[in-house]
Amino acid sequence: MNIESYREYCLSLPLTGEKTPFDQVTLVFTVVDKMFALANMDKFESINLKCDPEKAIQFREEYPAIIPGWHMNKKHWNTVILDGSLNDDFIYELTKHSYDCVVNSLPKKVKMKSKILQTDNE
Predict the structure, then answer these.
(1) Number of CB atoms found within 10 A of residue 88's CB
(2) Which of 39, 47, 57, 87 stands 20 to 30 A from 74 (CA)?
């Protein structure tokens, strides 16, 4: 996986945007201006993803390449290390889960205004 294909996937999700609010190399993907993925554009070695707290623990126990979110709330964020041990499809599934976590946490009013009524996980 490379940053270009990952970026293309993230931007294919409804109402997704991108920005660099922290510095010039940290690319942040958002849905309705809420972060769901962060990655370094220069060294695409890991991705920070939001995660259901129970699943976050499960993933960390099962996969050595998934660790508590670096510089993030470790209850809600994982860092996925791109060392080749996780296949691309699984990384995209983790990204979609992160996206869904953010969408599902949006107030109903915001979902209706943005025309996001539900995601696959509801």
Answers:
(1) 13
(2) 87
Model pLDDT for residues 6-50, shown as the tens digit of each residue: 999 999 999 999 999 999 999 999 998 999 999 999 999 999 999
Pick the CATH number of 3-114 from 3.90.1150.30, 3.90.1150.10, 3.40.1130.10, 3.40.50.620: 3.90.1150.30
What's the order of all strands across the beta sheet hosting 77-81?
A: 16-19, 26-31, 34-40, 46-50, 77-81, 66-68
Instruction: Please write the tens of the pLDDT for every residue from 44-71.
Output: 999 999 999 999 999 999 999 999 998 8
- What Rg, from alpha-carbon coordinates, does the chain have? 14
